[in-house]
From TrEMBL:
InterPro entries: BglG_antiterminators (IPR050661), HTH_11 (IPR013196), Mga_HTH (IPR007737), PRD (IPR011608), PRD_sf (IPR036634), PTS_EIIB_2 (IPR013011), WH-like_DNA-bd_sf (IPR036388), WH_DNA-bd_sf (IPR036390). This is HTH domain-containing protein. It comes from Candidatus Enterococcus murrayae. SUPFAM superfamilies: PTS-regulatory domain, PRD (SSF63520), Winged helix' DNA-binding domain (SSF46785). The keyword Glycosyltransferase does not apply. Pfam families: HTH_11, Mga, PRD. Residues 299-406, 519-614 form the PRD domain. Residues 208-235 form a coiled coil.
Length: 614
């Protein structure tokens, strides 16, 4: 069969996602290669397509495109996403990743001949790769042992070995992998496992599928609306790593068994308990600490507001842009850092679908934030990596955008949800497109339910969701120019098929006659605090006191959202107990906000109950 490279797969996916012609010059510019290279790529793509009875269409002065029916596009895209990495030529970076995994998931030395067999390359290629790998490992404080007549083995700090294993697995995951893994977790019946490319042919693959099966059983008893798919993914990978390393007699710390009733309510504990029992492994306290978080112990406390102000001021100075003039940036970034730095479960290698796009498109901003963050954030150096910085960069990028709110076609946007993420996407789409209303943002965990509830005419997603009854568009984590063009074409198509419903929804004016922005902001703050005090009185002892400060911030932001017609539109699963609690307080909360001339929706009311004792 014709083999194609990773770049050729990306080009082919672009053809499948966008039916409009594109020139070889544009393709070359997008990928930073020569036109000649793109022409060679197109020759290989044609051969791959011809094996499937399809071909590229090209016309001088117009470009190249694929003429296919919607069903043919879906079929080819599905095939590409499922088998792409099994058919591509592995470059040295991919080979080094697979090579390191082979050597870290064993306690036995492996010969160069056996490594060449496993990776299906020549022995000379493996020997050259091992030299490169040795330098790479040395920079991480690890060592490539060369044992005479036995082979090669990686040694060093157990914590560093595990971080490298995790980094390789996380780095090689695609959005398709994330979607399929989360989909498997949410299925009620028993399912086959999922093949990880980097784990192919290793003991890790069988263990990972066992962890998936055990997690699926646990999630049947849990409200998934409260979960974060990034944390779920970290748990799955870390429990599998801990299992394989313990099977190979490598421990991360002491041999003291975990016996802490507080931790036995955590999902990570329940998962470890089931998996370790299956493999007859002891549940050590330090193994649990490794699985649970990279910063299990309390770090140095820091004034987050002062930190946020410093970050904004110093990044503004570095790139000569007045971010400090944007009060919304201060609010949003403070909220993000408060939640991120106070969360118990913190992971170094956290999946971030925006990272590569932000680094490529905004390198000056990314570098400036990295320099400032490393100087300003104390006690969290372990967490400051590309993923952490990219999430902060999202908040700064919001300030580059101007909000325009013209809508008509209802859409649900499935992405890595969060205030910075959704604000940036909303503004980018609003600025570039017309006649579209984002009815809700959803994550991969609650996408199907939100789509069912909102009944959109269009679903836009960074994940390849299957079985859509409405128009569906897959986009990059940060929408590209081509993505925005696809969305606009879909909107036009939907509007042409049925009369436009409703009118454009204009941004609400601020209530009353305001003599100045200062007067308005003062009144808004007083109104928010009054509502906060009344909510405290309403909830009384039901409010979780640990979250009291976070609840204050939440109420202030909520009043701001309602005032400017930007209320939450996301909804997830609710347990029967939550439904009962919500119905008890619903009328009182609506009455309270009505007294202040604010109309609160059900999603905002539901969000308040995150601060109530379970």
């Amino acid at each position: 069969m014709q083999q194609i490279t990773k770049r050729q797969i990306q080009v082919l996916l672009q053809f499948l996602e966008n039916p409009e012609p594109i020139t070889t010059k544009e393709l070359a510019s997008q990928r930073n290669v020569s036109v000649r290279t793109i022409k060679y790529d197109l020759d290989d793509i044609r051969l791959w397509l011809q094996e499937r009875n399809h071909d590229l269409t090209s016309k001088r002065s117009q470009g190249v495109w694929l003429e296919l029916s919607d069903s043919e596009r879906i079929k080819l895209k599905s095939e590409l996403m499922e088998v792409d990495r099994l058919e591509l030529f592995a470059d040295q970076t991919l080979r080094l990743d697979r090579l390191s995994i082979q050597l870290m998931l064993t306690n036995q030395a492996i010969t160069s001949y056996e490594l060449a067999e496993r990776l299906t390359v020549s022995k000379d290629t493996i020997l050259n790769d091992l030299d490169s790998l040795e330098k790479q490992l040395s920079s991480l404080g690890l060592k490539l042992e060369r044992l005479p007549r036995k082979g090669f083995l990686i040694t060093g700090s157990e914590h560093q070995v595990r971080l490298l294993i995790e980094e390789v697995f996380q780095k090689d995951l695609t959005d398709y992998d994330i979607y399929k893994i989360m989909d498997l977790l949410l299925q009620s019946e028993k399912q086959d496992g999922y093949e990880l490319y980097s784990a192919k042919g290793t003991a890790f693959q069988e263990v990972f599928n066992q962890v998936l099966a055990d997690m699926r059983q646990l999630l049947k008893q849990i409200d998934t609306a409260e979960l974060n798919y990034s944390e779920l993914l970290n748990m799955l990978i870390r429990v599998a790593i801990a299992t394989v390393r313990l099977q190979n007699e490598y421990t991360i710390g002491r041999y003291q068994l975990l016996n802490d009733p507080k931790e036995q309510r955590e999902l990570s504990y329940l998962l470890m308990q089931q998996v370790f029992a299956h493999y007859q492994l002891p549940l050590f306290e330090d193994e649990y600490r490794y699985v649970y978080s990279d910063t299990f112990e309390n770090d140095l406390q820091q004034d987050v507001m002062a930190l946020t102000e410093n970050l904004i001021q110093k990044v503004s100075k570095k790139i000569n842009y007045s971010f400090f003039n944007d009060p919304q940036l201060l609010t949003n970034l403070y909220a993000h850092l408060s939640m991120r730095l106070s969360r118990k479960q913190k992971f170094v290698n956290e999946y971030n679908p925006f990272k590569d796009d932000i680094k490529a498109k905004y390198p000056e901003l990314f570098d400036a934030i990295e320099i400032v963050v490393r100087r300003e954030i104390r006690g969290k150096s372990l967490l400051i990596n590309d993923s952490f910085i990219a999430y902060i960069a999202l908040h700064f990028l919001v300030s580059y955008e101007k909000e325009v709110d013209l809508r008509s076609v209802r859409a649900v946007y499935v992405c890595s949800t969060g205030l910075g993420v959704t604000s940036l996407i909303k503004q980018k789409i609003s600025e570039e497109l017309s006649n579209i209303e984002i009815a809700a943002f959803a994550s991969v965990l609650n996408a199907q339910e939100v789509i069912k509830q909102k009944e959109p005419e269009l679903v836009i997603s960074i994940f390849p969701i299957e079985g859509m009854d409405c128009e569906f568009i897959k986009v990059h984590p940060l929408p590209t120019k081509q993505d925005l063009e696809k969305i606009q074409q879909a909107v036009k198509k939907i509007l042409s098929q049925s009369p436009q419903k409703g009118t454009r929804k204009l941004r609400l004016e601020t209530p009353g006659n305001r003599t100045s922005l200062e007067d308005f902001s003062k009144e808004l703050i007083l109104q928010a605090y009054t509502i906060y005090e009344k909510l405290l009185s309403l909830f009384k002892e039901e409010l979780n006191q640990e979250y009291r400060e976070a609840f204050l911030l939440h109420v202030f932001l909520m009043v701001h959202r309602i005032t400017f017609d930007q209320q939450y539109m996301m909804e997830g699963n609710k347990t029967d107990e939550t439904e009962k609690t919500v119905s008890t307080y619903n009328q009182q909360i609506e009455q309270l906000f009505s007294e202040h001339n604010l109309a609160i929706n059900q999603s905002e009311i539901n969000a308040l109950f995150a601060y109530i004792k379970s």
